[in-house]
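Q: How do we represent a protein-ligand complex in a form that can be generated cell by cell?
A: Start from the inputs.
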Amino acid sequence: MVTRARGMAQLGTESAFEVLARAKALEASGKSIINLGIGQPDFQTAPHIVEAACKALRDGHHGYTPAEGIATLREAVTVDLHRRHGVDVDPGHVLIVPGGKVTLFFAVLMFGEPGIEILYPDPGFPIYASAIRFVGAEPVPIPLREADGFAFSAEAVLERITPRTRLIILNSPANPTGAVTPRAEIDRLAAGLLQHPQVAVLSDEIYSRLVYGDRSHASLLGYEALRDRVILLEGWSKSYAMTGWRLGYGVWPAELIEGASRLAVNSHSCVNAAAQFAGIAALTGPQDSVARMIAAFDERRRHVVPALNRLTGLRCGEPGGAFYAFPNIGGTGLSAKALEQRLLEEAGIATLAGSSFGRQGEGYLRISYANSLENITTALERLEAWLADRGDAR
Ligand code: PLP
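Then emit the C-alpha cells for the protein with pyridoxal-5'-phosphate bound:
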C-alpha cells in the first residue's frame, strides 16, 4: 500500500468540472442541457491572436523560452497595466505562467505551511481554500454578505489578521458573486494594512476588464505603500476568451520575484511559446473584440438579473462585474446542492451550487451568463416552468 503526502487528502476540486462532465453525459444520452455552470467566455479567441500563435510556430518558435516569459510579452504586460491602471511596473517583476491559477498556487506555496493562517473570500473561487489546505496552512474565511452586495469589507478582513497571518487573498471582480468591491472600501483596507506590514496580499484581478455600468475596477497595484507586498494575479483567460491557451501572469514585489521564478523553473519551466506570442498580439493588437464581448456580457446581465427576480423563490442583487449572477434561493426551500442537481437532471440547466464556493455560499446559486442570450432565455423559461411544476413545491 502506497502512502501519499498528507496534503493530498486535503486537496479539493472545482465542482464546475464535475458538473460539466455530468452535463456532457446527459447530453450524450440525448437530453438537452443549457450550460450556465462553467466560467468561461462563449466567444472564440480573436483571429489576429490565433494567427500570431500560428505564425510563431511557422517561424520556428518551438523551444523553451526564458522561465519568466518572453521579454516582449513581459514588457507588453507592463504597458497594458500602465494604460489601464496608471501604474508603473518593472517588466522584471512580471512572471508569465500557464493560467491564472498558477500565480495563486505559487503564492500559497511561498507563504503557507502548518501554523500559518491565510485569509480568503467565502464564497470564493474554491481553489483558494484547496491550495491553502494542501500546504497545511489554516484557511481563514472572510465572509462576504449579500447585504454588502458581496463586496469584501475592510473591517471584516482587518479584524481577522492575527500574528500567524502571512497572506490575504482578495478577489474583485469576484467569482462566484460578480461583486466589484468599491474603491472607497479598498482605500480603507489599504490604510488598515499599513498596521500589518508583515502580511502579503494576493489580489486576484483575473476579471478586471469585465466591469459594467458606472463601476470601475480599483487595482491593489495602485497603492504605492503596499507595492512591496502585493502580488497581482492576472491573465488572458477571461478577458480575451483564452481559457484553453493556459496563459496568465503574476506581478511580484521585488523581494519575491526571484522565488516565484524558481517555482516556475521547478514546475513548468516556461509557458508554451506559441501561447506567449498570442498573448503579445492580444495586448498590443486591436481591442475591439474585447469591447464587443464585454458589451454582450453586459446586455445578458441586464436581461438575467430582472428575469431571476421575477421568479418565485429567487432574489438577485445586481452583479457589477465578471459574468456571474448569484441569486438567493432561500425561497425555494431547497439546499443549493439539491437545487443544482434537480435543475440539471429535471430541467436541463447546468448551474453551480453556491455552497461549492464555501460555507457562506449556501442558499445561493451561481449562474454564469457566458452563454448566448437565446440559450439564457430558454434556460430562464425552463427554470420558471420547473419552479411552477415541481412536485414538492412548498
Ligand atoms: N481566479 C478566479 C477568481 C477564477 O474564477 C479563475 C477561473 O475560473 C481563475 C482565477 C483561474 O483562471 P485560469 O483559467 O487563467 O487559470
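Residues 39, 99-101, 125, 171, 175, 204, 206, 235, 237, 243, 248 surround pyridoxal-5'-phosphate (CB under 6 Å). The radius of gyration is 21 Å.
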